[in-house]
Write a structure and sequence with these properties.
This protein is an all-alpha fold. The protein is built from ten helices and no strands.
């Protein structure tokens, strides 16, 4: 396939932009790489130089959400001095701000799969990134503890962070509050709860968080 008139270098970011525009305009995933490239005036081999399929492109979009979040955190001069709890809070606040900027695409991407989000292929890479991020936080906390009995299990903590993210993602998808302020409240309460669990003082925080979930989902 040839694509005349396209002299701009094709990057993964440009292809992602083309793809997101396509699915939002057509409300359907492209039928083939050939047709997608033809419409966007991109050479087919240029697409395959970056992605092996639409599945890999979709996965890469979520990885980009994560990497862009980390870049924003690293650009915050105060972030390095934050407590682990505040680092986790800042991560989730920033991540969901990026999702909100791309809300139409995210809702399209996850439509019809709200109850099986943990099985979505396109979130596998994100799952690894979030678990690694959480593991680094708990390893950092453990480094300052001399007694083994006071150290926390990174595997348990990282898995909890992933489950927490899935809850927040579904909550955000269903949130109709102005500025998604209820999602912000859910982030704050859930992060407080998961850190309280690891400090062995979960009762008050978990009860508060449980009441919030009940009110939002069943009231």
């Amino acid at each position: 396939m040839t694509a005349k008139g396209n002299t701009t270098k094709v990057t993964d970011d440009k292809l992602i932009g083309y793809y997101m525009d396509y699915v939002l305009e057509h409300e359907v995933i492209p039928q083939s790489v050939y047709k997608f490239c033809k419409e966007k005036k991109v050479k087919e081999e240029e697409f395959y130089a970056h992605f092996g399929s639409f599945d890999s492109l979709q996965t890469h979009i979520w990885n980009k959400f994560f990497s862009n979040t980390i870049k924003l955190l690293e650009n915050n001069e105060e972030y390095g001095a934050f407590s682990n709890k505040d680092k986790m809070l800042t991560f989730f606040f920033t991540f969901f701000e990026l999702l909100t900027l791309n809300r139409s695409y995210v809702l399209f991407s996850l439509e019809g799969q709200r109850n099986t989000m943990d099985k979505l292929k396109e979130l596998r890479g994100l799952r690894s990134h979030i678990k690694n991020f959480a593991t680094e936080l708990i390893d950092e906390a453990n480094a300052g503890k001399n007694l083994r009995i006071t150290k926390r299990n990174p595997k348990v903590f990282s898995e909890g962070a992933w489950i927490q993210f899935l809850f927040l993602l579904k909550f955000w998808m269903d949130d109709s509050s102005a500025g998604f302020e209820k999602t912000d409240l859910a982030i704050e309460k859930s992060v407080t709860s998961i850190f309280d669990v690891f400090e062995n003082t979960p009762l008050e925080s978990l009860l508060d968080f449980g009441k919030f979930l009940y009110k939002e989902n069943f009231a």
